[in-house]
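Ticket #4471: structure output looks truncated?

Reporter: J.K.
Steps to reproduce: submitted the chain below (325 residues) through the standard prediction queue, then opened the result file.
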Amino acid sequence: MTKKICAYEDKDGFVCNEHANESGLCFWHDPNQDKSGPEIKEKLEQYARSGGQTRGIVLKHADLSQVNLVNHHKKHGFDFSYADLYRAKLDCAHLFNIKLDHASLMKANLTAANINCASLRDCNLLGVRWHECKIENIKLGKELRQQKLAKIATQKKEFDEAFDLYEQAEEIYRDLRKHSEREGLFSLSGDLIQRELTVRRMRMPKFSFKRLGSKIVDIFCGYGEAPLRIVFISIVMIIICASIYTFTGLNYQGDIIAYSPDKPLWENVSLFLSCLYYSVVTFTTLGYGDFTPVGYSRAIAAIEAFTGSFTIALFVVVFVKKMTR
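Returned output as attached by the reporter:
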């Protein structure tokens, strides 16, 4: 009699070679098999260490308290990609370096678990209990699963679904951020607050002033988490204004100096450097008085001075906030 092989195959082409039951799937990949018993923890450990296909296994409601799924003396942890761990009890579990890409940890209990260095790319983390869970160096990827699905829903003009998915993503980021702050992982919490506020912005009306204001704050300082971005924008602002002054002209010792194609190249370059100096002085609101604006340069100087004073104050606030964590 021919041995019936499990019919499981995931999106990446991985298959399972375990013996299949009547459903065509093995015990681990069959969603109808009861895995809530107390013996499931030891069975899972043995199955994983014996080289079984752990990708895509279904462990909904499984009691895996204190389970040890650390792949000792190996570079890579066990691969549980596409696994379904809905409402699984994983309190005090040892999951160091585990791979849970595209998996579901929805409403799983990770109280006091260790998932340091775990890969959680495209994993459903909605409703996870993070209390006292170790999350150092976890890999979340650029976006959560909900964000990707929300973008697809937006393209299909299913705006209610997209709004709900963005709301779920915000909740996940908020829960993770609060937990990372409690754990003292301020670098991670800084990244998470940026992501949280970004998905919150996506829930705002598309052409509203509120959304525009949120986008501007993101561009200028990354919601208070990117002080160097302010420095870069300041440099760009100074160079742009200097270029404008070169053409609109400045007053220097009673003479109007401005770009002219009839002048030698070195003279126009010297003029630009003088305008660059004036732009720096104006942006920092020092105002030495050796150069003064004329004509359209006055409006540009006023805008630059206002922007400069605001930007410098913003940099101080953001830098102090970042460094005093």
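Triage note (M.O.): checked the attachment and the full token line is present. The mean pLDDT is 93.
Status: closed, working as intended.
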